[in-house]
Design a protein that fits this description.
The complex is a heterotrimer of chains A (211), B (105) and C (566). Chain A is mainly α and 211 residues long. Chain A has seven helices and no strands. Chain C has 19 helices and no strands. In chain C, helix 17 runs antiparallel to helix 18. The longest helix of chain C has 36 residues. Classes of the chains: A mainly alpha (211), B mainly alpha (105), C mainly alpha (566).
Chain lengths: 211, 105, 566
């Protein structure tokens, strides 16, 4: 009872109602986010339709190993996230804290790999501008979208890492009710960031003829 | 989630955790396998089929994450509808814009 | 955690007689999570933005009196009309009705104590304010000359203005829209009083629901568009640049995917307000409630399919133009249904002409004119002739100013007694309403003629034969400006000197009239009683009972009877 009361927010009188509306609110926000990333992917697709050859060539210059490693890292982080959620459900505070901590660390690992990839790209002159490495004009547009989309995704992921670390920290200190809807809502957001990357991966990394 | 699991016997909780590891572990392995498949596909020459194949595998992975990781399987019909609305309007945007791009004179 | 005020004065909140007296410090306003106080905060900021945007266009209108442009430079002229557009669209029209009247009324109308996410509600105001300040900073520090549409490649490669700051401000403000949209949708889904089904919602609540769907699904695309401008301009990433094979039309697709539905963000809530006004002052249940609901949802939905009619002369595929033209005609159908249903609601109604009703009736006429000229523009051959002329300017001002702004003023007058607990001077209010109607037509009707004769929009100098129409327009604009300045005076006066309003001065049927004026902090001291039907005025085809007439009309009839008896 007291634990439920601690998680209750205005203007709700029951935690079940609050959980229901929090989840619905998050899903509504995710619908909005789908349009956000959808618009970026559409911009990418339009130019790809106009310049297929240049885009294929440019995609061949992305670093497929960093991209693949990051995909696997994110998929694993989602596994940890769901387990954390389930553990919170079963009232297993320590397991939940551990899983969320692993989730956050994997998120951080993604950003570190991304950092190495960015450095590699910069060394190879893959930043659009004067001394861009590839000849075709549209290859610069490919890399404009590459930098834009991956950066926006990284911002989303960073927000996710902050949210998950906060929950893990609160769990370790025992400062959060195990029944708080925050776990489910955060897990939902994390899953969405994962989905975005799953879409980025084939569009950007696998588009080049590597055979 | 329910109050039943809260006051549950330790043995029931253990069973619940084991079941969760199994279920989510399988989902995780399937996703990794699909990713490996699409990566391998990038090195084979599928010609015009490369893009539909990549997008197809990606779509399956998105569905799996949506259904199992994000819990679309057990959420309310309203939440499913909300998620679907996002995709429907992205489709509208793609259809009408690409309709212009492909038929431009 | 409990909200800030409750934490400060847990006893005071429960005891306060109304929301205006639930704390008088600046902090109690700026940190309030009460939807009514947040509505007032929004009211203050949109009024300031309205004055800024209005001042800019006043200078432009004065300048256009003479064909040669004597007072300001071409560059200043461009910056002023851009300022007008950006401020009016994103910082006045989009938040106007949803975030002031909607924020105040939606929880009251559905019998809820607050919005579903009170803190998010406050956050959305701060985000909006931050976006507004960024945009204002851009406009003060050198200005922007791209027009409100930010078309590439001009905005990203050639303009010397502060496009970056302005685009970033609009980007930020978008998230305020999304937050409000999520909040309204969640509130309307989950906080309706027991027994209030979807088909018993007041149509104003339905309009806010429909508009929230558009806000949630369209605004993110605007955010991306602005982000890509920032990427191209600041980071030098060539995204739309034709020299690299980029597609400027892609920018227009993305921009109008948001900005056409945004027109419906501006007009749908106005339709909701006007339905409340017309039913109350005709003392009639709305004609065809179900179809009014379907029409609104249909407008919100089809609104996503018509954006290409802004691009008929852009080099877009003619096949795409054909489809967009057809779809634009389709969306006229639900709009027409609404107009017919409003007029049918008036039929055999017991109409009285209080100030809010004058605004409401003005809306129906002006919206019809704006909508019908929209059909001219939806047909490709006519659009090719009048594209980018004053005809277009007149058309969308009929919808946005004649429609939305009239409805906003109508709603403000209608609910003023509820918001402040005070009655304003009816005579002055009617005078202002009539003046606004004439001033508006005087300003914008000549622009239809101007455009049809070939005067392009956004031009600083023009051939002398157009001067007479520009002079008429400017003269009308002065009348309009006077009509806009009147309400702040007499409404402001009423706050201090106005007579106290009862709980339900208009004898209206909505739940918001069952609580006290102004409402207590958590809206209802005892749960409101749901009337038998939504719009519980006298039924179709039946004569009204004596006690169903509007209170004011009853008073005046009683007075006449007394006079007659003498």
């Amino acid at each position: 009872m007291t634990e439920s009361a601690a998680a209750l927010r205005e203007p709700w009188t029951s935690l079940e109602d609050q959980r229901r509306v929090a989840m619905f609110g998050m899903w509504t926000f995710i619908a909005s986010e789908i349009l956000f990333f959808g618009a970026l992917f559409m911009g990418f697709s339009v130019v790809r339709v106009l310049h297929p050859a240049a885009f294929a060539e440019a995609a061949g210059h992305t670093n497929i190993w960093y991209g693949s490693a990051n995909t696997a890292i994110l998929l694993t982080s989602s596994f940890a996230m769901v387990m954390g959620l389930r553990a919170a459900d079963l009232d297993l505070r320590r397991l939940a804290a551990l899983c969320l901590a692993v989730t956050a660390v994997l998120g951080l690992a993604f950003l570190i790999v991304k950092g190495f990839e960015y450095k590699d790209d910069i060394d190879k002159h893959l930043v659009p501008g004067q001394d861009f490495a590839l000849k075709a004009g549209a290859a610069q547009i490919f890399f404009s979208f590459y930098w834009g989309i991956t950066a926006v995704h990284a911002v989303h992921l960073t927000i996710g890492i902050v949210l998950v670390s906060r929950l893990a920290w609160l769990l370790m200190r025992g400062d959060i009710a195990m029944r708080s809807p925050q776990f489910e809502v955060t897990a939902l957001y994390w899953g969405f960031v994962d989905i975005v990357w799953i879409t980025v991966y084939p569009l950007i990394y696998l588009g080049g003829g590597r055979s | 989630m329910s109050d039943a699991s809260r006051s549950a016997h330790p043995a029931t909780t253990r069973k619940g955790v084991a079941a969760a590891w199994r279920r989510n572990g399988i989902v995780w392995l399937v996703l990794l396998a699909l990713q490996a498949g699409s990566l391998a596909g990038a090195y084979a020459s599928f010609g015009h089929w490369a893009l539909p194949l990549d997008v197809g595998i990606g779509a399956v992975m998105v569905l799996i994450v949506g259904i199992f990781t994000m819990g679309l399987e057990k959420t309310t019909a309203l939440n499913r509808l909300t998620a679907a609305a996002g995709f429907v309007f992205v489709l509208v945007m793609f259809a009408l814009t690409l309709g212009d791009v492909y038929t431009r004179l | 955690m409990t909200d800030a005020i409750a934490a400060d004065h847990p006893q005071g909140l429960a005891r306060a007689r109304d929301y205006l007296h639930a704390g008088s410090t600046l902090r109690s306003w700026l940190m309030s999570t009460d939807h009514k106080r947040i509505a007032i905060l929004y009211g203050i900021t949109i009024t300031v933005f309205f004055l800024i945007g209005g001042a800019a266009i006043t200078v432009v209108r004065l300048e256009l009196v003479s064909p040669n442009g004597n007072f300001i430079s071409d560059d200043t002229y461009n910056k002023l009309f851009t300022l007008h557009g950006v401020i009016m669209v994103w910082f006045f029209l989009i938040p106007s009705i949803p975030n002031t009247l909607g924020n105040f009324l939606v929880p009251l109308m559905i019998g809820a104590p607050d919005m579903a996410f009170p803190k998010l509600n406050l956050a959305s105001w701060y985000i909006n304010l931050a976006g507004g300040l960024f945009t204002l900073a851009a406009l003060v520090a050198g200005g922007v000359d791209t027009g409100w549409t930010f078309y590439t490649p001009y905005s990203t490669m050639f303009s010397n203005g502060n496009v970056l700051l302005a685009a970033f401000g609009v980007f930020i403000a978008g998230f305020s829209s999304i937050a409000s949209g999520v909040n309204f949708i969640a509130t309307i889904h989950t906080l309706r009083i027991a027994g209030m089904g979807w088909m018993r919602l007041p149509l104003f609540v339905w309009s806010i629901y429909a508009v929230s769907l558009v806000m949630v699904l369209a605004t993110p695309v605007l955010a991306v568009t602005m982000l890509l401008i920032v990427a191209e301009r600041w980071f030098g990433l060539p995204i739309f640049d034709p020299a690299h094979g980029g597609d400027p039309l892609l920018f227009q697709h993305l921009f109008w995917f948001y900005s056409h539905p945004a027109v419906y963000i501006m007009i749908l809530p106005a339709m909701g307000v006007v339905t409340e006004l017309i039913t109350c002052f005709a003392r009639r249940a709305v004609f065809g409630y179900t179809f009014m609901v379907y029409a609104m949802v249909a407008i919100a939905f089809i609104g996503f399919f018509v954006w290409g009619h802004h691009m008929f002369v852009s080099g877009q595929s003619p096949y795409a133009s054909l489809i967009f033209s057809f779809l634009s005609f389709v969306i006229a159908v639900p709009s027409a249904i609404k107009v017919f249903n409003w007029t049918a609601t008036l039929y055999r109604g017991q109409i009285s002409f209080e100030a809010p009703m004058l605004y409401g009736l003005g809306f129906v006429g002006l919206f019809t004119a704006g909508g019908l000229t929209g059909l001219f523009l939806a047909s490709i051959p006519v659009d090719v002739h009048v594209h980018d002329t004053y005809f277009v300017v007149a058309h969308f001002h009929y919808i946005m100013v004649g429609g939305s702004v009239s409805a906003f003023f109508g709603g403000l007058h209608f609910w003023w007694p509820k918001i402040t607990g005070k009655l304003y001077s009816e005579t002055w209010a009617r005078f202002a309403a009539i003046l606004m109607f004439f001033g508006f037509n005087f300003t914008f009707f000549p622009q239809f003629i101007l455009g049809y004769l070939g005067m392009p929009r956004r031009y600083h100098v023009y051939p002398p034969e157009f001067q007479i129409y520009h002079e008429m327009s400017t003269l009308g604009a002065s009348v309009l400006a006077a009509a806009y300045l009147l309400p702040p005076v007499y409404l402001g006066w009423s706050m201090f000197r106005g007579t106290r309003a009862g709980d339900n001065p208009w004898g209206a049927s909505g739940l918001e009239w069952q609580t006290s004026s102004p409402p207590p902090p958590r809206n209802f001291r005892s749960p409101p009683a749901l009337p038998d039907t939504v719009y519980d005025y006298h039924a179709q085809g039946k004569a009204p009972a004596a006690d169903q007439a509007s209170p004011r009309r009853r008073d005046s009839e009683a007075r006449q009877n007394v006079d007659a008896a003498r």
